[in-house]
Amino acid sequence: QVQLEESGGGLVQSGGSLRLSCAASLSIDSFFAIGWYRQAPGRQRELVAIIDTGRSSTDYGESVKGRFTISRDNAKKTVYLQMNSLKPEDTAVYYCNARYWTGSTNEIWGQGTRVTVSS
Question: What distance in Å separates the CA atoms of residue 44 and residue 69, rounded to the nearest whole number?
């Protein structure tokens, strides 16, 4: 069974840092894309950062470029999101998402981890 488990959320002051982790039940290369989305209260879920494993490339949402970094540890089957210079508007539930191919495209979400940035 394919599973994703996030950790690392919490409360941090504006300007601070947090690192989120997403542990997968499969190797990272089993997915053709894996990354992070977030959803703030009353807002739609939005892309934060994503890894295209086939192209070995990354992409970021406009609001986090230059502040957040996505990375992977293949041995630990884990994807990280390093978040620096956090702002109150980064407050949201952060979800790990992965897509994989089994004859058709499959998508899986983690349960989410809450990040709260106080001003």
Answer: 22
